[in-house]
Each structure stands twice: as C-alpha cells, then as structure tokens.
Request: fold
Amino acid sequence: MLKSLSLGGLIGGLVLFAWGVVSWMLLPWHLATLEKFKDEAKVAQALTANATKSGVYLLPNVHKHEPGMPEAKAKKAEAKGKKAEAKRKKAEAEGMKRMIQGPVMFAAVNLQGTSGSGAALPIQLVTTIVSAFLATWLLMNTTLPGYWPRVGFLVVLALTAGVICHVPDWNWWGFSAGYTAVAFADLLIGWTLAGLAIVKVT
Reply:
C-alpha cells in the first residue's frame, strides 16, 4: 500500500506539474482572461503610495481602522459607546454603497515584486506531489471497482475542489466568468491526466 501511495503521489504530481507547464506557458488561455490596466505606471504608483505593506487588499474596505492609527487609539475610539457605534455603522453603510456603485477590487499586492519562476517552480512541484499523494490516499480508501470509475473518482474530487475554491471567487469577488471557466477546465484536464496515471500505478 505504501509503495502504491508513493507512486501515485509522485507520478500523479509530476503529471500535474507537466500539465501546469503546458497550460500556463504554452497555451494562451490563462493570459487571455487577465485584463490590463490602461496606464500600469499610474496604477503601480497609486499602489506604492497607498499600500502600507504587501498583502491582500479589499477596495473599499470599511472593516479595518485607518492605516497608521495605533491599535490602542483605535480601541479607545471604539469604547466611546453609542456615538462610536453609530459612527461605525454609518461608515459601513457608506462602504457598502461604494461597493454597490463600484469599483471594487480584491487583489494580492506584492510591493517587493517576485523572485521569478525559479523559486516558485519547486514549490509548485511539491504542491502537485502533495495534492496527488492526498488524492491517491483517498482513492485507496474507496472500494470502487474498475479502472474508469477510479479515474472518475479523482476527476469528481478535483471538480469538488474547484467548486469550493473557484465559485466563491466568482460569486463574491467578481472573478470573471472567463477566468473561472478556464480555471475549471485547467483543473479537470490536469486531474484527468493525473487520474489516468495514478489509477494505473495503484
């Protein structure tokens, strides 16, 4: 069992990684779903001037205190009773109005830039191997008979993960239908290929 589990994780992970290289570097569909700002230099300048640190940002965001306000001061302001509560509710209502009117942004901001694919690729490889290992473990704890039902199990598992991860981004944060559709297609194709390999060695 350990041998099959290890083979499934390793081979399935390598297949997933190879598919990711093809999907992102050779096929045009991912990049086609990513929009471009009209003036990237101005947007970058605005981010540098207004983002206090790297992280995930929400615009508008009325659920945090103003940047630079000391936490002790913020807590003191919140403790002023009904006046502070009314002010908070008013700010949240205005924030919701701005969200409805737009624009809205949910974005990961990295002020330092990236180190390129050299550092990210090994992490991605480990990620695919670990995910294939976990999927193989789940598969080996089922009693499904036959090759194709077992492949189907892994594809449905991937579909479930996609629904859990991608649909909320589309629903809540405005990820485009095109971006979401490509993400699902990428996921299902990758796990179909990995499933064919995993079931073969287990």
